[in-house]
Amino acid sequence: MNRIEFMTELASLLQDIPVEERKDAMQYYNDYFDDAGEEQEQQVIEELESPAKVAEKIKADMAGFREEETKPNMPATKEQTRQQGEQRQSQTGQQNYQQTPPPGQQSQPKSDRTLKIILIIALILLALPILLPLGAGLLCLALGIMISLFAVFLGLVIAAVVVVITGVALFISGLLCLVPDLAVGFALMGIGLILTVVGVAASVAAVKLCAVAIPGICRGIVWICRRPFERRAV
Amino acid sequence: MVFNTGAALLDAIVLAVVSREKEGTYGYKITQDVRKAIDVSESTLYPVLRRLQKDECLEVYDRQFDGRNRRYYKVTERGMAQLNLYHEEWKNYSRKISEIFEGGASV
Lengths: 234, 107
Prior knowledge:
The complex is a heterodimer.
Chain A lengths: L2 H11 L5 H18 L4 H8 L2 H18 L6 H18 L14 H71 L4 H52 L1
Helix pairs in contact in A: 1-2, 1-4, 4-5, 6-7
Chain B lengths: L6 H13 L5 E2 H11 L4 H13 L3 E8 L2 E8 L1 H26 L5
Antiparallel strand pairs in B: 1-3, 2-3
Helix pairs in contact in B: 1-3, 1-4
Protein name (chain B): PadR family transcriptional regulator
């Protein structure tokens, strides 16, 4: 093992401690190798035994520091608590550092929060290819439903208006038929009048129905459209 | 060495070694100096330095050396107070132990 292999392995073993701690430790051992000099490199590596051993000591001491808080004016109790911390650490073995954030450290929650933000961004980026077409699909579906509903109501109105027009046309053609054929003319005029009245009534009814239904549909569409955006914003 | 070096004694030795250099000193040299007195493995010193730094007994700064940044350690005021406390404790402790070894009468 050479120096670069040693440092690389140490860095990978220190992945589960806060960034600040890792950088500091890496700088220390980098300096250490530099100051020892190239000819001492193998000796230093032998002395340090292995990256695992170095990493273990760094983590064990961080666990100890966590237990004791900062009481540098009481050497006896400090040592006791540190030993307790070390014992606890050795009992649990390779304890994950992230699970129990130290109470007195500031770098920990900060890096934790950054990690969370990065994770959320990554999640959004990963979900985007799914969410985007899904959202677009839902939007198109809503649009389609809206247009077809509008068409149905518009159709009703048009049908009613057409009945009115037919009624008027029949009445006029009845009037024209009065001269050659009285009976047919009256019959046509009667049917025309009935159709006109029915048509007007139907038109009024259809328009009123539209007045009630269309704003309701619009509100529904808006609500449906808003839902995927709300979900994505969370 | 037959005697164990406890964490407090190790802290005291490191503080003493660093305090001898007015301008501060660096990791490799601290290790060499400490190893003149006691037998510790090289990997033991870094956690001690880091802890003392967190306890605000040591401060660090980087200085250019040989075309690179070298990290220096310096004892703070708090560190000096702590060192004095350790020194007093040590004097008491070693005197008592010596008395047992050499006189044995008055403990």
